[in-house]
Specification:
The complex is a heterodimer of chains A (301) and B (326). Chain A contains 13 helices and no strands. Chain A has two domains: 62 residues; 230 residues, MetI-like fold, CATH 1.10.3720.10. Chain B has 326 residues and is mainly alpha-helical. Chain B has one domain: MetI-like fold (Orthogonal Bundle), CATH 1.10.3720.10. Chain B is 76% helix and 1% strand. In chain B, helix 5 runs parallel beside helix 9 and helix 10 crosses helix 11. The chains are: A mainly alpha (301), B mainly alpha (326). Chain B: It is a multi-pass membrane protein. Chain B: This is Phosphate transport system permease protein.
């Protein structure tokens, strides 16, 4: 494991006597095996993504119709219907999630990058934030269930939104901090030299310089929570009709609708599940690609 | 030096001379307070998750004691609950996911850093990373409707026919009902789901290794295999293990994809082709209809999952971080 000596003795011994073929068969075989197997592994990844997209397009397009976007989900065993209520519900839940998570995430990221920096508390928060980033989302569902569904006595869109916000926050904290740290120190110093208080320096200099990166973080968080299913199972649940404007009771949403309909025995429901799956996957992949381009244009500047 | 001046600029009141008045005033203090409170809130999220799950699961731990971990009962009528089957299912599917997923991830990382022609690098890397953003419920549907039938037909049935009656292999690889769903299917789907994470972290780590090390190894006549085996892997080994642990953390807690393909049976089977259940899949399946002691037992399962995942994730982050500092 000596990092300074990258050529262990074995290589030197093997490489020295070269007679006939330039590379000894054993070495050539090992090399070929590595090349072929890593190429295959990459091809496998691409094939799986292709297969998933192909499946969604083949099955999902069949279910696309204008009614999909205008009618609510039908009852069991019936014909027709759409997923308009689930689409609207998902939009609302995701909006609540992102609206709660953005200020918390950006401010916490700002604390880590500007105020806390290398203090012990900032280090601890940074570390735990990274852990929260990959925490099982179902546990967050259980937490919000205890916190909100139990106390409010009913499933609600608010609980679903809060659960999604807790999932989105660490993503935003992480990207905000990373992006703010890329802002060069002299910019801040220039602001402070003009007599601006720290809050003004942060708001009108560092945030502005890092804005594209922070937006990327928010888009990534959006992509992350748009498809989350597990935490919504115990918080927003689902519902086969339109929901009340105060968002109490089960709120229909795409992921849970897909889960319930895909495993149901009714062909009509399964068809709607496929259409919903296509819709949600395209949305999320588009968001991820958009986020990538935002960050790219930032780097180029 | 820059850090020092920044600190003076930002915390003027604390380190500046007493004669200097802090600009800003109340608005500035409020902003600072808001940032601080938000950061503390992130801590509270984590503490809240632990506290609520521990609180919910406490009655089950008190009722069943240590036996909760070792009992394989899950009887709703008689109110007897044990976590053993779910724990074993979680560990088995996650272990299978690592066995299958880690070599593929390392292969992809090596391909992207060493073998891929320059023009293809970006699109290939992006394709692999897009795999990470596909929602887990879509993996579940793909696993159940596309992969499981193929798996049953081309793997489970032939393998079961071959190994039937053989010792050890005969029990380990025999499918009583070759339906395509089971612990191994869950492991394979989980493997596909962790590959993009492990591969992209490993790729970043391999990219960080100074080019001169690689060049000097090639310069003395090493083949690509030797460069990877003797130069790159020893350099990045700690962080690769960290990346694998991150993947493990993900595999342990993954819910929806597993719920689709594991079969959801509360039965301990020696065969990896048979249906089983994981902690997460059981919570997802039963929580909404659960009441009383069953609810507490499910919360207790969540508590076990929390503890196991968080230990794994803490180790992972420590390993990945240590290398970044060095």
């Amino acid at each position: 494991m000596d990092a300074r000596n990258p050529m262990p003795a074995t290589i030197e011994r093997e490489a020295a006597p070269v007679t006939g073929s330039r590379v000894r068969p054993g070495r050539r075989v090992a090399d070929r095996v590595l090349v072929v197997s890593s190429t295959l592994a990459t091809a496998l990844g691409i094939v799986v993504l292709g297969s998933i997209l192909l499946m969604l397009i083949v099955e999902g397009v069949k279910g696309f119709s204008p009614a999909l976007f205008t009618e609510p989900t039908p009852g069991p065993g019936s014909e027709g219907g759409g997923i308009a209520n689930a689409i609207l519900g998902s939009l609302i839940l995701t909006s609540i999630g992102i609206v709660i998570a953005t200020p918390i995430g950006v401010m916490a990221g700002t604390y880590l990058a500007e105020y806390g920096r290398n203090s012990k508390l900032a280090d601890l928060i940074r570390f735990l934030n990274d852990i929260l980033l990959s925490a099982p989302s179902i546990l967050i569902g259980l937490f919000v269930y205890t916190l909100m569904v139990r106390t409010m006595g009913s499933y609600s869109g608010w609980a679903g939104g809060v659960a999604l916000a807790i999932i989105a926050t660490p993503v935003i904290v992480r990207t905000t901090e990373d992006m703010l740290r890329l802002v060069p120190g002299p910019l801040r110093e220039a602001g402070a030299a003009l007599g601006a208080p720290p809050s003004v320096v942060i708001k009108s200099i560092t945030w502005r310089a890092a804005s594209a990166g922070i937006v990327t973080g928010i888009i990534l968080a959006l992509a992350r929570i748009a498809g989350e299913t597990a935490p919504l199972l115990f918080t927003a649940l689902n519902n086969n009709s339109w929901f009340s404007p105060n968002l109490m009771g089960g709120i229909p949403n795409l992921p849970v609708m897909i889960y319930q309909f895909a495993l149901s025995p009714y062909p009509n429901w399964q068809q709607l599940a496929w259409a919903g799956a296509l819709l949600i996957t395209i949305t999320i992949l588009a968001l991820s690609i958009v986020a990538r381009f935002v960050i790219k244009s930032e780097r180029a500047r | 030096m820059a850090a020092l001046t920044e600190q003076i600029a930002l915390t003027g009141a604390a380190s500046g001379s007493p004669a200097r008045k802090t600009p800003g005033g109340i608005g500035d203090q409020l902003f600072r307070l808001a940032a601080y409170a938000s950061a503390i809130l992130v801590l509270l999220f984590l503490a809240g998750i632990l506290a609520s799950i521990a609180y919910g699961g406490w009655p089950a731990f008190r009722e069943f004691g240590f036996g909760f971990l070792t009992s394989s009962a899950w009887n709703i009528g008689q109110e007897q609950y044990g976590a053993f089957v779910a724990i074993m299912g979680t560990l088995a599917s996650a272990a299978l996911a690592l066995v299958i997923g880690v070599p593929i991830s390392l292969g992809i990382a090596v391909y992207l850093t060493q073998l891929c022609p320059g023009w293809a690098r970006k699109p290939v890397a992006m394709t692999i990373e897009l795999l990470a953003s596909v929602p887990s419920i879509i993996y579940g549907m793909w696993g159940l409707f596309i992969f499981a039938p193929l798996f049953a037909r081309f793997v489970q049935v032939p393998v079961s026919n071959v190994v039937e009656g053989l010792p050890i292999v005969g029990t380990l690889l025999y499918a009583r009902v070759p339906s395509g769903v089971g612990v191994l299917t869950a492991g394979i789907i989980l493997a596909i789901m962790i590959v993009p994470f492990v591969a992209s972290i490993t790729r970043d780590m391999l990219d960080q290794i100074p080019t001169v090390l690689r060049e000097s190894a090639y310069g003395i006549g090493c083949t690509t295999w030797e460069v990877v085996r003797h130069v790159l892997v020893p350099q990045a080994s700690v962080s690769i293990i960290g990346a694998i642990m991150l993947g493990l953390g993900r595999a342990l807690g993954e819910t929806m994809a597993v719920t689709f393909v594991i079969g959801n049976a509360n039965r301990l089977s020696a065969s990896i082709f048979d249906p089983g259940s994981t902690i997460a899949s059981r919570i997802a399946n039963e929580f909404n209809e659960a009441d009383g002691m069953q609810l507490h037992a499910l919360m207790a399962l969540g508590c076990i999952l929390f503890i196991v995942t968080f230990i794994v994730l803490i180790i992972a982050r420590l390993l990945v971080r240590r290398v970044k500092v060095a």
